[in-house]
Design goal:
10 helices
Length: 390
């Protein structure tokens, strides 16, 4: 099947109709660039100039859809016009065909046509002047330059600016897309960070509340129930305080409020004391000096989550918490009694280990967790300077 010719643009149709009407008007007024008696006029009928005019006007319909084809037929029509009395409108329409062939044609045509028309301009001026020994022969080159080279050059300049504008638009779209991707990644990372902080701050208190409220409900001893309820109240108050602090950070975007202090390794003693109040037998062995703030926060949260997991999943026995600062790293190790198959004393989200692993990975460290004989071991190695573990 043959492909149907695309419909011409409506502006091209207007140019063709307007040019044809203007050419017919000029012909009716007998406004011709040459007289019928001139020796160059080889086709003498009075209607002869209308033929190349009609062909050139028809070629205007192809100026966008088939610019190179329109230029070829237009060139033949212009050559035919030179052997008649001629029409200025035909010449004007031809200059537009040259311009359109450069602007709307292929990239190869846009490169070649200015060179071809420029070469024709030079040859058209030099050759006649050389052959005829008459400087007036240079006027032929000037005429070719006005009719062909000037519109071709104009089309090339306009096309170059159009391509530059299109490239700038594409770069702007790509920049906007990259900015949107960065924004989406930043939002996702912030959501993950806030979820991790919320889990680490509140899960410990809620786990203690769940365990001690269960004990208060299942044991009939009033004294034991009173002690359990006291622990429940203490953890609920602490959990609410943490929640209020986090909500305040999320709501206050003005920057007027001073940020709350992040947990540090100096707070491990208070953390261990709270774990003992929740019923854990914890032994702390901390040996460290100056530790960067991000490492302090990550280490504190890893120990906190490990104690929460020991409270929910561990068996009866001593929980060992050890921190050792070695050459360029902080080594964290938490072990607790472990009996496979025991159901947890409080429900969990299952994201505790994932959160600890994320914290270690963000600092370029290592994290391991799993059973070691009858105990569950959590170990994290955090670099004190960026790139130590790379």
């Amino acid at each position: 099947m043959t492909r149907a010719l695309p419909r011409p643009h409506r502006d091209d149709l207007r140019i063709a109709v307007g040019g044809l009407a203007g050419g017919v008007l000029f012909w009716a007024l007998r406004t011709h660039p040459r007289l019928a008696s001139d020796p160059d006029v080889l086709w003498h009928p009075a209607w002869a100039p209308l033929v190349p005019l009609a062909v050139t006007a028809a070629c205007e319909l192809l100026r966008r859809v088939r610019p190179r084809t329109g230029l070829l037929f237009g060139t033949a029509a212009l050559a035919l016009d030179t052997v008649t009395q001629g029409s200025l409108v035909t010449v004007v329409l031809y200059t537009d065909l040259v311009y359109a062939a450069v602007l709307y044609g292929t990239a190869a045509s846009a490169r070649r046509i200015p060179w071809i028309t420029g070469l024709c301009t030079v040859l058209g001026g030099v050759v006649p002047a050389t052959v005829w020994r008459d400087p007036q022969g240079l006027l032929i080159g000037v005429a070719i330059g006005v009719v062909a080279f000037a519109p071709a050059t104009t089309g090339w300049v306009v096309r170059d600016h159009r391509d530059a504008a299109e490239a700038a638009r594409l770069r702007a779209e790509q920049t906007a897309l990259l900015a949107e991707m960065d924004r989406a990644q930043a939002v996702t990372a912030e959501r993950v960070r806030m979820a991790r902080e919320l889990h680490d701050m509140v899960a410990n208190h809620l786990s203690a509340i769940a365990i001690h409220s269960t004990a208060a409900l299942s044991i009939g001893d009033p004294e034991t129930s009173r002690d359990a309820l006291a622990v429940v109240r203490e953890n609920s108050v602490a959990g609410l305080a943490e929640m209020r602090r986090l909500i305040g950070i999320l709501r206050d975007g003005s920057g007027d409020r001073a940020p709350a202090a992040s947990p540090t390794l100096d707070g491990l003693s208070a953390l261990v004391t709270a774990a003992r109040a929740n019923g854990l037998d914890v032994r702390l062995d901390a040996g460290h000096t100056d530790v960067p703030t991000p490492v302090e926060l990550a280490a504190y949260r890893i120990v906190q989550e490990s104690l929460t997991n020991a409270l929910k999943h561990g068996a009866e026995g001593c929980v060992h918490v050890g921190l050792r600062q070695r050459e360029g790293t902080l080594d964290i190790r938490v072990t607790s009694p472990y009996r496979p198959g025991d159901s947890p004393r409080a429900p969990g989200s299952g994201s505790g280990l994932a959160g600890m692993r994320e914290r270690a990975a963000l600092l370029g460290g290592r994290f391991e967790a799993g059973p070691e004989g009858a105990r569950w071991a959590v170990r994290a190695v955090l670099p004190l300077t960026e790139g130590d573990l790379a």
